[in-house]
Amino acid sequence: MGRHPLSGAVSGTQHGGIGSICVFCGSSSGTGSRYVDAATALGEHLARAGVRVVYGGAHVGTMGVLADAALAAGGEVVGIIPEGMVEREIAHTGLTELHVVADMHERKALMSERADAFIALPGGAGTLEELFEVWTWAQLGLHAKPIGLLDIDGFYQPLRVMTDHMVDEGFLRPSHRDTLLFDTDPARLLRGLAEHQLPRVDKWAG
């Protein structure tokens, strides 16, 4: 069996071993300026903290905003994008590294492998799909990398309610619900990720 894309040692030395963070974000900018402002603030903060940004490689939506902000603040940004999106001229051509891969599965595997932690900005179905995959893998013990959500104007509060409901109905352990860290402030969220210890509870035990 091959090595799982999320297995292996944490490579970074910044912030408790976090040298690179994979950020899940949108190909759209959302309504108003709040989500663009949040992506800008996160990109700037990660760059100034010496944390490399890993993301989906596009120049559109909050994805492009995040990358541009991190680069402008002197940070490193690694983009990973499927070749079909490059052909549509969505790829960001000014990144520190741009990796063109065959498909979405390879994209997510490489994004995950290059990261020491994960942050989800507000986004749509693709953002949630990426978030839920790494969250599920954490529950299965396939990685021990912390996962955070930057909760802008209560965007992720319905998800918090849903995870509580999943616990109440017996489909999710409280310890696995608490794997997800919610915060409204990038600096505080990064500190929380550096300090967070994922539960070592076997999903199948008991």
The helix content, as a percent range, equals: 40-55%
Briefly note the structural class of the backbone: alpha/beta
Biggest sheet statistics: 7 strands, parallel
Radius of gyration: 16 Å
Portion in strands: 15-25%
In the predicted model, the low-confidence regions spanning at least 5 consecutive residues are 1-13
Q: How would you characterize this protein structure?
A:
The protein is α/β, with parallel strands linked by helices. The relative contact order is 0.16. The chain contains 8 helices and 7 strands, in the order E-H-E-H-E-H-E-H-E-H-E-H-H-E-H. The protein is globular, with a radius of gyration of 16 Å.
Give the tags.
single chain; 206 residues; alpha/beta; seven-stranded parallel sheet; 40% helix; 16% strand
Outline of the structure:
With 206 residues, the chain is of the alpha/beta class. The chain is built from eight helices and seven strands, in the order E-H-E-H-E-H-E-H-E-H-E-H-H-E-H. Strand 2, helix 2 and strand 3 form a beta-alpha-beta unit.
Helices and strands in order:
Layout: E1 20-24, H1 34-48, E2 52-55, H2 61-72, E3 77-82, H3 83-87, E4 97-101, H4 104-113, E5 117-120, H5 125-139, E6 147-150, H6 157-168, H7 174-177, E7 180-183, H8 186-195
Parallel strand pairs: 1-2, 1-5, 2-3, 3-4, 5-6, 6-7
